[in-house]
Amino acid sequence: MAPDEVTTSYRTCPLCEATCGLEVTVRGREIVRIRGDRDDVFSHGYICPKGSTLKQLHEDPDRLRRPMVKRDGVWSEVSWDEAFAEVERRLLPVIEDHGRDAVAVYIGNPTAHNLDANLYIGQLIAALGTEHRYSASTVDQMPKHVSAGLMFGTAISIPVPDVDHTDYLMILGANPFASNGSLMTAPDLPGRLKELRARGGRIVVVDPRRTKTATEADEHVAIRPGTDALFLMAMVHTLFAEDLVSFGRLAEWVAGGDDVKAAAEPFAPERVADACGVPAGDIRRLARELAAAPTAAVYGRIGTCTQEFGTLASWLVDVLNALTGNLDRRGGALFPLPAAGSPNTEGPPGSGRGFKLRGIRRTRVRSLPSVLGEFPVATLAEEIDTPGEGRIRALITVAGNPVLSTPNSDRLDAALASLDCMISVDIYLNETTQHADVILPAPSPLVKGHFDLLLYRLAIRNVANWSPPTFEPDNDEVPEWRTLLRLAAIAGGLGVNVDVDALDDQILLAAVQRAVGSETSRVSGLDADALVAELSRCGRRGPARMLDFLLRSGPYGDRFGHQPDGLTLDRLIAHPHGIDLGPLEARVPAVLRTESGQIELAPEALLGDLNRLEDFLERPRADDELLLVGRRDLRSNNSWMHNIDVLVKGKERCTVHVHPNDAIRLLVEDGKPARITSRVGTIELPVEVTDSVRPGVVSIPHGWGHDHDGTNLHVAARRPGANSNVLTDESIIDVLSGNGVLSGIPVSVEPV
Ligand SMILES: Nc1nc2c(c(=O)[nH]1)N[C@H]1C(S)=C(S)[C@@H](COP(=O)(O)OP(=O)(O)OC[C@H]3O[C@@H](n4cnc5c(=O)[nH]c(N)nc54)[C@H](O)[C@@H]3O)O[C@H]1N2
Ligand SMILES: Nc1nc2c(c(=O)[nH]1)N[C@H]1C(S)=C(S)[C@@H](COP(=O)(O)OP(=O)(O)OC[C@H]3O[C@@H](n4cnc5c(=O)[nH]c(N)nc54)[C@H](O)[C@@H]3O)O[C@H]1N2
Ligand code: SF4
Ligand SMILES: [Mo]
Question: How much is the pLDDT for 29?
Fold first, then answer.
């Protein structure tokens, strides 16, 4: 190919959960243009303003290209070999002197959008052998994993609303017009929601703020933050009280209906109305509407998870879907059937080991249990800064920026500075990685092959789409999976000079042997060595080879020739715009992995948590309370896209929203700075007076606060904003899931 030849390739945007198709035009190693792929089978050309900025991200001079080592407080670029030698030199003594549990690991959000990490991060975690595992999940969706796990048997068995077919959609605590959807993979959700209404459907949005999603809906319910569990309980109460419950087809698969009825008994709409700030009549009417709609779906997202009753609220969302006969039917909430590697497509269909809520491990300081093998990230700082036996002394972060994204971040910031050793796999020298001793850079997304292994498990259509690397890695770039394996080798004692390819071969062989040895696998009984040879043709290895295996042994797979029309990676490569595997279909009972083989509508652990909800109802509330909630902007992506000029220019986005009535009372003015203070911290921000927030609620976006000395984010530093997580309180968590509480934080606001 001539160096100036213009070529076009197609890939999936890895920035958010919407999985939009991109058309990337390049000349040599230069990116000419990125725009929406009109032929993408799922997104049909839709992108948001972030999609095309993969070009700016790729070209960002601040993005790290070479490993960085800090000695005596001074950073220098080093070779990969030198960097890994430094990792070994710093990490192994911590393990030798203090044991494996002295090393913690924190896994951030972009790993969910990253095939290398999807497939290889487990190796690193296993090799570390530490109980101190943390991730962004406990400031995000952990409550939903817990409720889904208890009800349906696996943590990823989360029903998604069938937005393309439903007649009625109730959205709680989500703003897809800004976020493009979450735990619901659906490119162009704004367009799909508009279509829903155009075909006569109805949308109700429950949110303390009148968001863009709310203004585009039929009804906005401005709920008081943190009260969704009460609101949903009152709807459940109404359905039973007014004899509107009907499980439909699922009746024979549902256990615990009577227990739910009994549990909802004390939560009449009239009793919770004040606490929720929603009139009882509205709650009753909404319950009736939900029951009466030909099809309906209830959907809750981050606003319902990052609160004190996150798991209860997440549970009740699916209870409502079940009680109204909308679970697992067209137009309701359905379980996707993804092409590769989902726990609910593997093993014997219909029942399983179930979901074990409590890990045996507990945190040292607060004695909180692990959930899904993780400790709550809200405890990370105290596990570092509390002296004593068992203290964390080293940390590895992969694609995470907890200094901006987790509660009481100032405390974590200080704690990280005190570590004996910190290693980061990241693309920036930012608020978190500045504390590292070694930063190992991941390549630009355009240098990666990609497949949304995790997000397709939550997609509103069954889709499979492979993105080939747009560029081959250049001399200095090391694929992220190789970095993760090399780190794993060092942590596991295999040394810095491990043969990564040989390690990768072993990992694949082990996976293939497990599958062929399992009676219920689709490749049961086949010859493992032959399969490995077939998968390794043409030198294929790493994530692409492992993905090929998962696809071929998955529900649509070719089973290595036994299903000749089935999916293979080669087939995906031949379909650069993706393959549409059809709309979601009913999957109960096959999808279930509970021990009973039933949908557990009333898990004991959840019923046991209702005391807390009762106590909350009785908690006194001040008339002048101010509760902090978050918000997202279409041009943001958590904390790490603020170094892209086109996304941060224009109007200041990091402001505090204050209702006009509150502004008068608090003596704060539009455009003027205000001081916001919580139990744990204080920040200052310009005020934006707006009636889009409910009185008594103030809103600040998260992911800002790029004013730390010692980072290298030139664009972000020009408009740093302030970090809302300086205000969020690590001492409050959702007890069942260990999830941090980021919403409904009591604050005071005063003029500066
Ligand atoms: N542009 C952009 N897109 C993103 C991201 C981003 O940072 N920017 N982040 C991505 C990530 S990691 C995620 S997890 C998703 C999240 O996706 P969404 O869940 O859609 O997130 P938000 O847009 O923050 O919407 C949450 C809404 O909950 C409301 N809320 C706050 N507290 C409560 C409450 O107590 N009850 C109720 N009912 N509502 C409440 C807030 O006002 C807010 O409007 O977005 C993803 N997409
Ligand atoms: N107050 C408040 N706080 C919140 C939220 C909220 O709504 N309100 N939302 C929470 C949610 S939903 C989430 S998911 C978390 C996110 O929390 P985190 O995952 O901790 O933070 P991110 O901002 O996503 O930072 C991602 C990091 O990954 C790096 N990175 C980007 N791409 C790559 C890559 O390809 N490889 C590697 N190795 N690194 C990469 C970036 O430079 C950055 O350092 O924040 C949470 N925090
Ligand atoms: S909506 Fe999400 S996936 Fe689509 S272009 Fe924007 S950031 Fe990328
Ligand atoms: Mo998230």
Answer: 93
Pocket perturbation via mutation, ligand 2, pick of 639, 644, 654, 723 by most ligand atoms within 8 A of CB: 639
On the question of pLDDT at 1 being above 60, the answer is no
Contact of 589 with 350, CB cutoff 8 Å: yes
Ligand 1 centroid–CA 631 distance in Å is 6
pLDDT (tens digit, 9 = 90+) per residue, 262-320? 999 999 999 999 999 999 999 999 999 999 999 999 999 999 999 999 999 999 999 99
CA-wise closest residue to 420 among 440, 432, 405, 437: 437
**Per-residue pLDDT reduced to its tens digit, 157-202:** 999 999 999 999 999 999 999 999 999 999 999 999 999 999 999 9
| Nearest CA owner, ligand 3 atom 2 | 16
Q: What percent of the chain has pLDDT over 90?
A: 97
Residue 172 · residue 207 · CB < 8 Å: yes
Q: Please give the single-letter amino acid code of residue 734.
A: D
How far is Cα 172 from Cα 160, in angstroms, rounded to an integer?
13
First to last CA, the chain: 61
19 Cα: distance to centroid of ligand 3 (angstroms): 6
Averaged pLDDT, 195-216: 98
- List phi, psi (to 5°) of 138: -90, 10
User: Does the pLDDT of residue 663 top 60, yes or no?
Assistant: yes
Distance CA 141, CA 155 (A): 10
Cα–Cα distance for residue pair 558/565, rounded to 1 Å:
6
Look at residues 394, 399, 356, 363 and name the one whose alpha carbon lies nearest to residue 730. 363
User: DSSP readout, 242-310?
Assistant: TT----GGGGGGEE-HHHHHHHHTT--HHHHHHHHTS-HHHHHHHHHHHHHSSS-EEEE-HHHHSSTTH
Residue nearest to atom 32 of ligand 1 (CA): 303
Backbone angles phi, psi at 501, to 5 degrees: -65, -40
Query: What is the DSSP secondary structure assignment for residue 442, as one 8-state letter?
Result: P
Residue 82 CA to residue 104 CA, distance in Å, equals 23
Report whether 437 contacts 423 (CB < 8 A).
yes
Residue 43 phi, psi (nearest 5): -100, -15
Q: What's the gap in Å between 139 CA and the centre of ligand 1? A: 12
Give residue-wise pLDDT tens across range 475-523.
889 999 999 999 999 999 999 999 999 999 999 999 999 999 999 999 9
Place of tokens 């797979």: 557
Q: Please tell me the distance from the alpha carbon of residue 742 to that of residue 281, in angstroms, as a whole number.
A: 29
Ligand nearest to the CA of 405: 2
For ligand 3, whether the C-beta of 15 sits within 6 Å is yes
What average pLDDT does the structure give for the chain?
97
Amino acid at residue number 625: E
How much of the chain, in percent, has pLDDT values that exceed 70? 100
Quote the distance between the C-alpha of residue 366 and its chain's center: 25
Proportion of the chain in helix, strand, coil states, percent, rounded to 5: 35, 20, 45
- Please give the backbone phi and psi of residue 36, each rounded to the nearest 5 degrees, phi first: -65, 140
Ligand nearest to the CA of 443: 2
Look-up: residue for tokens 């162009």? 188
Paired tokens of 315: 């549970």
Query: What 3-state class would DSSP assign to 709?
Result: coil
Burial of 177 (0-12, 13-18, 19+ CB in 10 A): buried
Does residue 376 line the site of ligand 3, with CB under 6 A? no
Q: Which residue reads 């043409």 in tokens?
A: 538
Tell me how far the alpha carbon of residue 485 is from its chain's centroid.
Answer: 23
Task: Verify whether ligand 1 is closer than 6 Å to residue 304 (CB atom).
Answer: yes
- Find out whether 613 and 728 touch, Cβ atoms under 8 Å: no
pLDDT at 2 over 80: no
Buried b (16+ CB within 10 A) or exposed e, 580-606: ebeebebbbbebbbbeebbbbbbbebb
Counting atoms of ligand 1 from 1, which one is nearest the CA of 225? 35
Helix (H, G, I), strand (E, B) or coil at 631: coil
